[in-house]
Design goal:
With 290 residues, this protein is α/β, with parallel strands linked by helices. Helices cover 38% and strands 20% of the residues. The chain has helices at 22-33, 51-62, 75-81, 87-92, 111-122, 139-142, 145-150, 163-180, 243-250, 260-275, 282-289, and strands at 8-14, 37-43, 65-70, 84-85, 97-101, 104-108, 131-135, 155-160, 193-197, 206-209, 231-234, 255-257. It starts with 7 loop residues before the first strand and ends with a helix.
Length: 290
């Protein structure tokens, strides 16, 4: 454990990581709530595969680390590393938040909570009864499933270039929600996840991009996908509109947003887990947008 006289230590880890705004966010949360922490970025190599687990154990056991946020491509590795997992992490099979308590690594996933809060509170779109299609089936998409279902969506489709990966995600989360592991039966919504190929993704009220593969030189989506869409949401945050959001605007989607609000929301939930206090998100989001 860290020395009492020093700040509690936290990290955000990933590859790449230099772009991460998490240190700014958590410094603002700490100042707002009077918490004494040190929060830093750390790059972890992807090769060898065991590098992530070794680096995190060293941080927790040898450097006095108290917690970490985990970004691409390590969210599923963070889930496997943990000694204990929250229901949200169990449903996702991926973790973006780690805690170190009494020698044990505890995993949670706050991505979906941040997304749902941003859509419903900041953007003013109630998800109850809406059709939602999520593009992508990786660790980022996995973290969204349970909170979206618990928000009361009427249909949840995950679409991926490789349909087998989408089907595996759907099978994993549906099995978890059926009570096989991790999630209390009272929390399990009636709606189940459907899996399709990206080319077969259905139109929806809310369309969420959870893959970086639709950026840069990624393929254009079928304009029919945006038919009747009320909100296009990209989990990536960027200074300029992403190609996905450009396509949505060109197709006439009336409301679109990048993932900066989701980033602040998931960070706030991580901060609450670590420090026991929920910070105010609006001033931090305004700071980042300024």
């Amino acid at each position: 454990m860290p020395m009492a006289s020093g700040p509690d230590r936290y990290l955000v880890v990933g590859n790449p990581i230099a772009h991460s705004r998490s240190p700014e966010i958590h410094a603002a949360f700490a100042a707002q709530t009077g918490q004494h922490i040190l929060y830093e970025r750390r790059l972890i190599e992807t090769d060898p595969p065991e590098a992530f687990a070794a680096a995190m154990r060293h941080f927790f056991q040898d450097e006095g680390g108290r917690g970490a946020n985990v970004t691409l491509p390590f969210k599923e590795a963070a889930f496997r590393l943990a000694d204990e997992r929250s229901p949200r992490a169990e449903a996702a099979g991926a973790a973006n938040t780690l805690c170190f308590i009494e020698g044990r690594i505890i995993a949670d996933n706050t991505d979906g909570a941040g997304l749902v809060d941003d859509i419903q509170r900041r953007l003013g779109v109630s998800l109850q009864g809406l059709r939602v299609t999520v593009l992508g089936a990786g660790g980022a998409a996995r973290g969204l499933m349970l909170p979206l279902l618990q928000a009361g969506v009427s249909q949840l489709v995950v679409a991926n270039r490789t349909v087998a990966r989408a089907q595996q995600l759907a099978d994993d989360v549906n099995a978890c929600l059926a009570g096989e592991e991790g999630v209390d039966a009272q929390q399990a919504p009636a709606c189940r996840i459907e899996a399709v190929a990206l080319a077969d993704a259905p139109a929806a009220d809310v369309l969420i991009n959870a893959t970086s593969g639709l950026h840069g030189d990624g393929p254009a989506l079928n304009p029919a996908l945006f038919a009747g869409c009320r909100l296009a949401y990209d989990c990536i945050y960027a200074k300029d509109p992403t190609p996905f959001l450009q396509q949505a605007a060109a197709a006439g989607v009336p409301q679109h947003s990048d993932g900066l609000g989701m980033l602040v929301g998931q960070a706030a939930e991580s901060f609450r887990i670590w420090r026991g206090v929920m910070p105010e998100m609006a001033p931090v989001l305004a700071m980042l947008q300024g």
